[in-house]
Amino acid sequence: MHFQQRVDDKETEQDRLDKLRIAGNHLNFNESDEKNSGFHVMVSGHIESGQINEYDGICAKFDFISGTEWSIIEGNRTGVSQHAYKSQQTNRRVVWNYPFEIAFKSMNVNGWPQIVLTLTNRDFLGRDQVCGYGTVHVPTQPGTHTRYINLFKPISSSLISQVLGWFNGKNAEYVSPTELLARNEGREITRVQSGGVAKVQFHVTMKNMDQFGIFPFKA
Q1: Contacts of 152 (CB under 8 A, 6+ apart)
Q2: Transmembrane region positions (predicted)?
Q3: How far apart are CA 130 and CA 119, in angstroms?
Q4: Which of 21, 78, 94, 166 sits a CA distance of 20 to 30 A from 43?
């Protein structure tokens, strides 16, 4: 026994890790291991339409934002639609019907996913300008949901800044709109005006929520 103890003492740390790794390859895993690794929230739908003040030929960009403990396992975090125009047949609405699909995984509801919209169009010189921003949380109940997002855009602090922005093709806009709108930090110091409303359709599916003592509730 003393001899065996001396041999073990000579083993390096890497040898011990290798033995543990080899032993781990023969462990039997079951479905409960997957359930304990986190719950899933699958979101699909489309940005349907919008009533936008003053602008036409509008493009819709979406970004999904979530907390640090959330990870994307499938789908796209961001996307950009086509430029759409108002028509009499749609009651002067801008119709995109731009789809999105994404799947999240987490172990904590803190930082529940949000979708952030940034609407832009082009002026007579072909320069992109912001028409409005908006954000809303992904519905917390499985099923089909319709959300109307109130849009707004920042305004210049002075008339001179507004005139210079018009000549430069850069109206007042946020430098990092996605993070600012999702975290709400610093928004209280900006001046904004209404920019209309956007309609978004959500289809939400959830998995393994009950394994973490979480039961979906109505938003």
Answers
A1: 132, 133, 134, 192, 193, 194, 195
A2: none
A3: 6
A4: 94
Q: Residue 124 has what DSSP assignment?
A: T
**What gap in Å lies between CA 83 and CA 104, rounded to an integer?**
29
CB of 61 closer than 8 Å to CB of 117: yes
Segment 37-80, tens digit of pLDDT: 799 999 999 999 999 888 889 999 999 999 999 999 999 999 99
Cβ atoms of 56 and 86 within 8 Å: the answer is yes
Mean pLDDT (the chain) is 79
End-to-end CA distance of the chain: 66
CB 74 within 8 A of CB 103: yes
In tens, the pLDDT along 78-131 reads 999 999 998 877 677 899 999 999 999 999 899 999 999 999 998 777 778 888
Which residues are registered as beta bridge partners of 42? Answer: 103, 205
Which CATH class name applies to 39-210? mainly beta
d(CA 147, CA 202) in angstroms, rounded, equals 8
Beta bridge partners of 171: none
88: DSSP letter: G
Q: Where are the alpha helices (DSSP H) in the chain?
A: 2-9, 13-24, 31-36, 159-168, 177-183
pTM of the model: 0.74
